[in-house]
């Protein structure tokens, strides 16, 4: 069972008004050096990662994902809250070793 989290659907995506930008938070910070290593190892498409800036951007399926050092996550191109929750859950499982307590 997935933990319940607050997910806010922001304005529609510019490219496609039927899709949204979802904003949420993992509730804990991330070791960005570890995040960058994980993304490099998995060779995810369109990845850009900055340890210094504390942000990573990459494509996961059809979603454009941005994660931040403090635990914030933005997912573009979601169809609704359930779709956003699926994307966030997948990202959480990918970067699980990078979470800081």
Structure at a glance:
This protein has 101 residues and is an alpha+beta fold. It is built from two helices and six strands.
Largest sheet: 6 strands, antiparallel
Topology as a string of helices (H) and strands (E) = EEHEEEEH
Structural class: alpha+beta
- CA(first)-CA(last) distance: 21 Å
CATH topology: TATA-Binding Protein
- Give the overall form: globular
Radius of gyration, in Å, reads 13 Å
CATH superfamily: TATA-Binding Protein
Q: Work out the oligomeric state of the chains in this entry.
A: single chain
Describe the protein's architecture and organization.
It is a single chain. The protein is of the alpha+beta class and 101 residues long. It has a single domain (20-98), classed as TATA-Binding Protein, CATH 3.30.310. Helix content is 25%, strand content 33%. It has helices spanning 32-42, 81-94; strands at 8-12, 20-25, 48-50, 55-60, 63-68, 72-78. Strand 4 and strand 5 form a beta hairpin. The model has no long low-confidence stretch (mean pLDDT 92).
Layout of strands and helices, then pairs:
Elements: E1 8-12, E2 20-25, H1 32-42, E3 48-50, E4 55-60, E5 63-68, E6 72-78, H2 81-94
Give keywords.
101 residues; alpha+beta; TATA-Binding Protein; 2 helices; 6 strands; globular
């Amino acid at each position: 069972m997935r933990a319940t989290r607050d997910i806010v659907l922001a304005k529609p995506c510019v490219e496609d008004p039927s899709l949204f930008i979802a904003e949420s938070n993992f509730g804990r910070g991330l070791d960005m050096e570890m995040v960058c290593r994980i993304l490099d190892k998995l060779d995810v498409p369109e990845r850009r990662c900055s340890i210094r800036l504390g942000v990573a951007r990459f494509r996961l399926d059809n979603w454009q994902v941005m994660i931040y050092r403090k635990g914030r996550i933005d997912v573009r191109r979601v169809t609704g809250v359930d779709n956003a929750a699926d994307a966030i859950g997948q990202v959480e499982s990918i970067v699980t070793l990078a979470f800081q307590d």
